[in-house]
Amino acid sequence: MASLLSFLNILLKKIKFSIKIILKFLEKLSSKKTRPKLVSGFTLIELVVYMALFSIMMGGLIVVVFQLMQSSENLSSKDTAQEEINFVMNKISWALTDASSVTTSTTTTANDTLNIVSFSGGKKIFRLNNGQRIEFCQSATSSCSTYNFLTTLNVKVLGLEFSKILTTPLGINIDLNINGIINTYIKYLKI
After folding, report:
1. Which of 43, 70, 169, 178 is the most buried (most CB within 10 A)?
2. Smallest Cα–Cα separation from 114: which of 94, 106, 122?
């Protein structure tokens, strides 16, 4: 924002300088005895020059304002996606903290469901619902029936995949793609 303001300030200084030069030139032209001294006001040429300079200046400002608004919108979208990624990853990490067993399963074309059984016998499930949103279910028993959405409608989940790390130490690799922002997270298990 500071660089934009400095750019606009430099642009305005150059325009002022150009106007001064044009005014000096026009004064020289008007100082010739081609018209009487009593006539005051702007000539048609002066008005056209002023209108052209004003149009150029306003056109530049409109382009700059439009680009600022567009970049602000893009940044806001990326911030929202990053917040959603952080929330989902923290929730999965929390669920894996007391896991006694972990399985992955496929509902579409990828391993997009993570089943976690805790040491107390409870169950936690994370899954991708219709390729749009991530759902979470938690139950004190071995069955899970009520799912809650972890992601909002403000973002689109483009991919969620869980894969087990079978080497020691055991772990889960999580690949998450929200609005084109890809995040990979590895959580090692204490099993």
Report:
1. 178
2. 106
Residue 100: name the closest of 136, 144, 38, 142 by CA. 142
In whole angstroms, how far apart are CA 26 and each of 16, 22, 35?
15, 6, 13
Name the pairing type of β-strands 171-178 and 181-188: antiparallel
Reported as type and span, the H/E element at residue 137 is strand 133-139
Burial group, residue 53, by CB count within 10 angstroms (0-12, 13-18, 19+): middle
57: its two tokens: 């200046």
* Cα of 9 vs its chain's centroid, Å: 28
One-letter identity of residue 48: V
pLDDT in tens, 61-104: 999 999 999 999 888 888 988 998 999 999 998 988 888 888 88
Question: Model confidence over 134-187: pLDDT tens digits?
Answer: 999 998 877 778 889 988 888 889 888 898 888 888 889 999 998 888 899 998
Coil/strand/helix, residue 136: strand
Cα distances from 174 to residues 1, 9, 87, 137, 171, in angstroms, run: 37, 49, 14, 18, 10
Q: What element of type H or E holds 8?
A: helix 2-31
Which residues pair with residue 139 across a beta bridge?
A: 123
* Token representation of residue 105: 């399963």
